[in-house]
Design a protein that fits this description.
The complex is a heterodimer. Chain A is an all-beta fold. Chain A is built from no helices and twelve strands. By secondary structure, chain B is mostly beta strands. In chain B, the strands form two sheets. In chain B, strands 2, 4, 5, 6, 9, 10 and 11 form a seven-stranded mixed sheet that branches. The chains are: A mainly beta, B mainly beta. At the A-B interface, strand 5, strand 6 and strand 10 of A face strand 4 and strand 5 of B.
């Protein structure tokens, strides 16, 4: 079946540092890939998505590129802010698993001033 | 405002006492689902519904029931809660599943503790 593996956190960075959160996946067919963000006390919000190989999703300074050859969808941001502190989830759906979203374990990011 | 509303936000209950967590969406979405979030495991799908009167099991359905009598509501029922169901629960909805460009909208979560 489908699975998503994320780097374990927490990730602690200083403000304006470069961020990478690794995500790799296992899936049959051609899934869509997503990053969701969960701010403290809130539900998940879609951050960005990519629906086919080599697509780049971007939003709020975050980017991720759908790499089929390495089955990866790493999240990056050039300069993080304190307000980016949250839990980030990589997820996939589609392919041969239909509509179900499959999530990674989540990575907590803490940004210090 | 487009939203998914869950109630209650927090609940402490005792083993075996039936409970229901409600979920309502105002976006006329066909697809709704329930997840539980546990440390290190991410979100796992409990049940989902493709439309009214159509429900199906997700990854971890044991100990849960759902119903979809109206398009906007998708309650999660624990007939006899046990301590291993202590978790953070999220309801989500989307226009027609999450394949391709369809985005899933999540409620704020229900933190359930079973003692």
């Amino acid at each position: 079946g489908n699975s998503v593996t994320q780097m374990e956190g927490p990730v602690t960075l200083s403000e304006e540092a470069f961020l990478t959160i690794n995500c790799t996946y296992t899936a049959t067919g051609y899934p869509s890939l997503f990053w969701y963000v969960q701010y403290p006390g809130e539900g998940l919000q879609l951050l960005l998505k990519a629906t086919k190989a080599d697509d780049k999703g971007s939003n709020k300074g975050f980017e991720a590129t759908y790499r089929k050859e390495t089955t990866s969808f790493h999240l990056e941001k050039g300069s993080v802010q304190v307000s980016d502190s949250a839990v980030y989830f990589c997820a996939l759906s589609g392919g041969n698993a239909g509509n179900m979203l499959t999530f990674g374990g989540g990575t907590r990011l803490m940004v210090k001033p | 405002e487009a939203q998914v509303t869950q109630n209650p936000r927090y609940l402490i209950t005792v083993t075996g006492k039936k409970l229901t967590v409600t979920c309502s969406q105002n976006m006329n979405h066909e697809y709704m689902s329930w997840y539980r979030q546990d440390p290190g495991l991410g979100l796992r799908q409990i049940y989902y519904s493709m439309n009214v009167e159509v429900t199906d099991k997700g990854d971890v359905p044991e100990g849960y029931k759902v119903s979809r009598k109206e398009k906007r509501n998708f309650p999660l029922i624990l007939e006899s809660p046990s301590p291993n169901q202590t978790s953070l629960y999220f309801c989500a909805s989307s226009l027609s599943g999450v394949v391709g460009n369809t985005e899933a909208f999540f409620g704020q979560g229900t933190r359930l503790t079973v003692v």
